[in-house]
Amino acid sequence: MLIAESLSKSFPTPSGSLSILSDVSLSGGEGERIVVMGPSGSGKSTLLAILGGLEPPTSGVLKLDDVNPYELSGARRADFRNQHIGFVFQDHCLLESCSALDNVLLPVLAG
After folding, report:
1. CA distances, 25 to each of 22, 44, 81 (Å)
2. How far is C-alpha 52 from the chain's CA centre?
């Protein structure tokens, strides 16, 4: 079960704070699909990074199977992602020295 409540994300800038997401809430259960759509620059990738346990929100709460990954240490959060989250990046996050199959199998081999 995924529950996101009032997620917000902002980044500091020289002139203050830049708000990327503001008060986003959603939920989804096992077998459900969630579609994230919007124009370029609307915060879709930031939202997915937060939901994937990669980027902490500035405020709000994320629960994945009753666990807030941002309350875990870095190593435990990485283990949690490995066991509970599947993520396909929009940019190339592949090892050039490995075949496509090896790149796909790498997380399985890691454990």
Report:
1. 9, 13, 21
2. 2
Closest listed residue to residue 7, CA positions, set 37, 87, 19 = 19
Mean pLDDT of 14-21: 95
- E-strand ranges in 1-111 read 2-13, 16-28, 59-64
CB 83 within 8 A of CB 72: no
Q: Report the relative pairing of strands 2-13 and 59-64 from DSSP bridges.
A: antiparallel
Which amino acid makes up residue 20?
I
The count of structural domains within the chain is 1
From 12, 30, 10, 29, select the one nearest 20 (Cα to Cα): 10
pLDDT band at 39 (very low <50, low <70, confident <90, very high): very high
Strands 2-13 and 16-28: antiparallel
Domain with 106 in it? 2-110
What CATH number is attached to the domain comprising 18?
Answer: 3.40.50.300
pTM of the model: 0.79
Could you tell me if 24 and 8 are in contact, meaning their C-beta atoms sit under 8 angstroms apart?
yes
